[in-house]
Amino acid sequence: MTLTHPQTTAPAPDRTALGGVRATARILAAARGSTTTLPVLDGDGPFELRRLRSHGTQARVCIVGAMTAPLGGDRLRIEATAQQGAALHITSAAATLALRGPTPEPATYDVHLTVGDHAQLHWLPKPLICAAGSDLRQTWTIDLAPTARLVLREEQILGRTGEPPGHVTTRLTVRRGGRTLLDQQAAYGPGATGWDGPAVLADNRATGQLLVVDPVFEENVPEIHLLGDAAQHGQAVLTPLAGPATLVTAIAPDGLRLRHLLNAAQPPH
């Protein structure tokens, strides 16, 4: 018998007393014949998890913000696993807004993804907006089986309209079959060296990436490709990695033009 963890709504915790919210959300997708089921869908703290209508064999989950987060001092974590043969698509209902919190400590937002053999996972949430005064440490740790497929999009918008940016550091670590495929780190906003210089973002305030890992690239390696006609409207570059993967890196003046660049490079899903 398969058990589904119930979702409960608890009173919002006192951030001042706790030094920030501690919350973990868990998603488990399992193949059942020709479909994918969700035996675990467990939201916590600011994470409310909702099932969406399935698409073919793909189970779909939407992350809905149940409270304002992340704020300074918060410790947030999402764990998602697509077991062997499963197909999982994860999105969010709205952008994630990082704000200054009641404590001077940075907030952390950790995402752990595990994808089994012949399984696929699409991680396609709305952007992260780093408001003035915010300080966020965000990480993705991803473990892929040799035959797994992954599509991951991440976007950062540095500051809301008319305000200076917050500070954010991001680290993306991807292992395939136990071997490191990609490990990179970036920092933007006040205190980050050279982030707004001509070698990094210059006058742009939106940046993002699209990572696709697919065994089909072992036989058909994509070529380096530049996206975007004019630098002032944002540009992106698609590059093959040392493995069956491609990485699109984009910068743009705003989130709308950033999404346009990443959508142009995104495979069907």
TrEMBL record:
Where in the cell is the protein located? Cytoplasm
Could you tell me the superkingdom of the organism this chain comes from? Bacteria
**What InterPro entries does this protein map onto?**
UreD
Q: Which GO terms describe its cellular component?
A: cytoplasm
- Predominant cellular place of this UniProt entry's protein: cytoplasm
In terms of Pfam families, this protein maps to: UreD
Q: List the keywords (alphabetical).
A: Chaperone, Cytoplasm, Nickel insertion
| Gene Ontology terms for molecular function | nickel cation binding
Q: Which family does it belong to?
A: Belongs to the UreD family.
Q: What does this protein do?
A: Required for maturation of urease via the functional incorporation of the urease nickel metallocenter.
User: What subunit structure does UniProt give?
Assistant: UreD, UreF and UreG form a complex that acts as a GTP-hydrolysis-dependent molecular chaperone, activating the urease apoprotein by helping to assemble the nickel containing metallocenter of UreC. The UreE protein probably delivers the nickel.
The protein's name is Urease accessory protein UreD
**Gene behind this chain?**
ureD
